[in-house]
Amino acid sequence: MPLLNEKGLQEEIWRELEDHEPIPLEGDVIVPQARLEEALAAPRTGRTGVALPNTIEAEALQPLFNRLSLITVEFPGFGDGRGFSIAKRLRSLGWRGELWADGRVIADQLAYLRAVGFDSARIPEDLFARQPLEDWLTAARSISAAYQMEERAPGVASILERRKAARAAKG
Amino acid sequence: MYRYDEFDQRFVEERVAQFRDQARRRLSGALTEEEFRPLRLMNGLYLQLHAYMLRVAIPYGTLSSDQMRKLADISERYDRGYGHFTTRQNIQYNWIKLEETADILADLASVQMHAIQTSGNCIRNVTSDPFAGAAADEFEDPRPTGELIRQWSSLHPEFSFLPRKFKIAVTGSPNDRAAVKAHDIGLRMIKNEAGDLGYEVIVGGGLGRTPMIGKVIRDFLPKAELLPYLEAVMRVYNLHGRRDNKYKARIKILVHEMGEEPFRKEVEREYARLDVESLAAPAEEVERIQAYFAPPALENLPEESKAFERAKTADPDFRIWAETNLHPHRAPGYTSVVISLKPVGGAPGDATAEQMRVAAEAADLWAFGELRVTHEQNLVLAHVKKDDLYPLYRKLAGAGLDSANRGLVTDIIACPGLDYCALATARSIPIAQRLTERFADPKRQRDIGPLSIKISGCINACGHHHIGHIGILGLDKAGAEFYQLTLGGDPTETAAIGERAGAGFSAEGVVDAIERLVDRYLEIREPSETFLQTYRRTGAESFKDALYAEAG
Amino acid sequence: MAKAFVSSILTANDLREGWSVFLTRDGRWSRDWADLRVAASAEEGAELSALGAAEEAARRVVGAYLVEIDAEGRAKLRRERIRAEGPTHRADLRRADALSEAA
Question: Which of A125, B17, B29, B167 is the most exposed place for a label (fewest CB within 10 A)?
């Protein structure tokens, strides 16, 4: 499934664990939350990522942050915005690793996803067929400055900071 | 009033270009209707019964005469020469083409307007007191708060895909003219014992299928902490609001199901996690916004105007209009003027392009070029010299804008109903037309006194029927329109949800039924008692008797 | 027992213009309620629905659905009559072919 952000398509190095597949000891693997304990207990050499549903209490994961390299948050549909708040929480709890939005998000949400702390979106093939990369790149660039102070996507300026600078320039 | 700086201007222009691209992608097939729908809604574009409908934001109900003229131009150029002012202080156009919408948005941007977040499951246009900055009883202008929230909530990355729509209202007066207790969040500006300004925060009010009065979850929130606290409330709602049933997705249901106290604790817990300082609006930004709302240069005038008194004696129609349509201003010799959009036989809140232009011109001549839209679907000129009232009145009268009925039985609130709305179950406007015809006699209206009738054409309650003194809810019963009545509703600081009166009435019968209610009130009222006061004193029974005795 | 099929026509909104439109006998979308293709049986109804879905997929219209009609060929539901004939509160907003007060 295509993984992308405003810089373009990202390389797919992570593999998602199949149902009932034993935890592999090598390679970078995304495991469902239910099997996270099992994966972390295994003597693995590869990196571990976890796929979270969007009903998770982010705090529960905090003690495991230093043993994880990737967190994905499920978006069952683009209208279900819980993932945005979960990303905010994860980042404010100190998660510094990779964070993906996983599911049926649309091009017009990419800037919002980036602003709340996601690094990339992983979307289904059928969606990507209809909304090619160009749509995502255009949509991500469409608003160049935002009113919010904390939540801004890379490359999006702060209107408040610009105002401040303009005031300073005027003296 | 607020004026865009270059950054605000660029923001709305980019938003127009963004929408133009979204519409292009819809037409090319890159976006399905299901995907496009929330995007167009977040730019105020609905698909209604007849055509697309565009809802344009009028933030906290304040606009300039130039903006009003642009609204008139748009109605002629892209629509059918009229617009509909709504209970959320917005304007709607009913006959819009998708192909032309981006051009309309560009026209709006040229006068510092937009349609951002006038629909969709996001934070909607902030509403407020139409007499803000002018009313004698106000102690703080609520509009700078409204503007601060407008900017903060515009295209908010985290809160644009909420469980459901989210409405915020602000009042700066102890007399609530913004129905703050019927909003998802209501903010009442208050002073604490130390004399510091802040907000009483009310959460979980709303109408619709499950009407509820909001609960106070913070007695006093210091003014500077507003945005971080809103963020905490919004995050709790975004994470925990129900998404399994759209009719249970509003925050009022969350507050109700969690319980007031657990909800408050959850918000406070979230709030404690936040870096309040970094989320709070910078003081210089607050001051910058505040400065735009400085009162206009008012003259020192005597309280009494000789010209006004003379005109009242000379023209009895003017005297009647002046007795009903003025609102006390804080400055001697000034008043606020309500321009009624409720002529007998008209559609409540509708204004033609010509009427919009006349109102704009009146604002230029006599009211510092500024207008307001009220949640009662009327217009207001906030700062008018009493000396100027008569020429103003004459000008309004020339355009059919002189209805002397503010707050009276014919000052009816009505949603568009089945004449326009895809969700409606019955018509609203024709009921308002029949009622205003029935009660057209000005003397009778004034004898009846303050009485608000509010009509919704379906259970979603856009006509606010639950908080009308008399509420009318239009439903469909086996193919026939029928109307249920609620009694005793109140949108103000003494907010109450009206009680169902009993079995409903046919479209023909409902006007007679309302007349029976009004006649009963006239029979049993004590001297100088309003309908609502009589209802509260006597209870529903005598009114129900009047409704159903003869029908029996 | 399955509900008896009621004769129906196909309506939708024009994707670009938004106006409510109706499918005519010769396969055009028209703003006027005239010479409409009528489905008289469940099979014809299904065919007409499928046509509506195809027209949506072709991005000519949006929100296609069947409207039940009476023996005189008018929509049975008030909602659909208002949709076909225009708002009822102002005579000048009615469509030219509006037959009567919609109620």
Answer: A125
